[in-house]
Amino acid sequence: MRHGIHPVSRPVVFRDRAAGFQFLTRSTLDSDRTVEWEDGTTYPVVDVEISSASHPFFTGTARVLDTAGRVERFERRYGAATAGR
User: What InterPro entries does UniProt report for this protein, alphabetically (predicted)?
Assistant: First the structure.
């Protein structure tokens, strides 16, 4: 690899403020804000809106669509299908 053309990878804390969850990983992102991690070292922190701790797919709180109600509402609005078609 050529030297000097790749971004610097460093340890960064990603924090999901909605869930109160944070994790330390390597990233090329940089931030002006810092946070002290569990090991006592200060790392840059990046706030994210959603993570695996708050995403409905991972938490199991995903909503199931009411498909039967949607079909009934469609049939009421536009009429039931006729047998001749």
Answer: Ribosomal_bL28/bL31-like_sf (IPR034704), Ribosomal_bL31 (IPR002150), Ribosomal_bL31_B (IPR027493), Ribosomal_bL31_sf (IPR042105)
Residue 76 has what DSSP assignment?
H
Question: Encoding tokens for residue 2?
Answer: 């050529």
Give pTM, 2 decimals: 0.60
The torsion region of residue 63 among left (phi > 0), alpha (psi -120 to 50) and beta comes to beta
For residue 84, the one-letter residue type is G
CA 50 to CA 54: how far, in whole Å?
Answer: 6
Q: What tokens does 32 get? A: 């002006």
DSSP reduced 3-state for 43: strand
Query: CA angle 22-14-64, nearest 5°?
Result: 70
